[in-house]
Amino acid sequence: MSGTVDAGRRHDGEVGGGGTGGAGGGRPFGGGGRGDASGDDVEALLRARLRLADERIETPPGLWDRIRPAGNEQGPEARSPRRWPSAAVLPRRRPYAIACAMAAAVAAVALGVWWLVRPGDVTPQPAGPPATVKITVYNSERACRTGRSLECALRLAKDPYAAYAARDNSAGRVWHGDGLAARCVVTDGQMVRDEAGITSTRWYLVTTGQGARGWLPGVRTRNTHEVPVCPEGVK
C-alpha cells in the first residue's frame, strides 16, 4: 500500500523543548532536561505516534476492485462470517425440506393403512380331486341283485366309444348296489341295451371304493343326480 506516515521528528535529547542530556551527548526520547525519562512516558508517546500514523493511512484508489473476486458485488465490509448459512440461502432449501416431510407423512399413512388391511397368512391349498357325484350300480336281473358271483358281475369299460363286450375293453368289475364316485358323463358313447331292453348312450367315468377307474354304461345305474359333462379328451 502507498501512504504517508508521519512518525515525527527524531529526538536527540529534545522532546518538545530544549534540554541537555548526560555525558552521552543526549538520550533518545529524553525530555524536560531529564536524562532518565520513565518507561511509561516513552510507551505513551509511542502509542500516540502509532495511532496518529494509523489514522493518516489512506486506501489507494481502486484497491478493492483489484482484489475483489469476479462476480462478487459486495465489498469486504459487506461480508459476513461464513459460520452459518446466510438467510438468503434458507428460503431456497425450505421447499425441498417441506416436500421431503410430506413424502414421509404419505409413506407413514400408507404403511398404516396396509398394516390395518393386510391379508392374513395365506397357505396355498393343494389342488384336490375334482368334485364327484355318488351313483349306485343297478342290475336289471333280479337274480343278480344279491351275492357277488362272477356271473352277476358288471363290467367297467376302458373306452366308452369302443365295443362294450370287447375282450380288451375291461377296466374292472362292479355289482348291484355298489356305490361309485362319478366324475363326469359323456352322452354320445356306444349304445348299450340291458336285459330289460333299456338302451342308453350315456357313460359315466367312475371310481370304485377299491380305486378301480373306468366307464359305467348308463343302463347300469338309475342315477337321479346331475353329473357334469366330461371335457373333451378326458379318458
Molecular structure report:
The chain is an alpha+beta fold. Among the domains are: 1-72, no CATH class; 133-220, no CATH class. The protein has helices at 39-56, 63-67, 90-117, and strands at residues 133-136, 154-156, 172-174, 179-186, 192-193, 199-200, 203-207, 213-217. The protein has a four-stranded antiparallel sheet, with no helix packed on it. It is rod-shaped and about 155 Å long. Residues 1-35 and 84-90 have low confidence and may be disordered.
Layout of strands and helices, then pairs:
Elements (H helix, E strand, L loop, with lengths): L38 H18 L6 H5 L22 H28 L15 E4 L17 E3 L15 E3 L4 E8 L5 E2 L5 E2 L2 E5 L5 E5 L18
Antiparallel strand pairs: 1-4, 2-3, 4-7, 5-6, 7-8
Keywords: Membrane, Transmembrane, Transmembrane helix
Protein name: DUF3515 domain-containing protein
Organism: Streptomyces endophytica
Portion of residues in beta strands equals 5-15%
The main pleated sheet reads as: 4 strands, antiparallel
Q: Order of strands side by side in the largest beta sheet?
A: 1-4-7-8
- Annotation, overall tally of beta strands: 8
Distance between the termini: 111 Å
- The dominant shape is rod-shaped
Low-confidence stretches: 1-35, 84-90
| Nearest-integer average pLDDT | 75
What integer value in Å does the Rg equal? 61 Å
Residues in helix, %: 10-25%
Task: Provide key terms for this protein.
235 residues; alpha+beta; four-stranded antiparallel sheet; 22% helix; 14% strand; rod-shaped
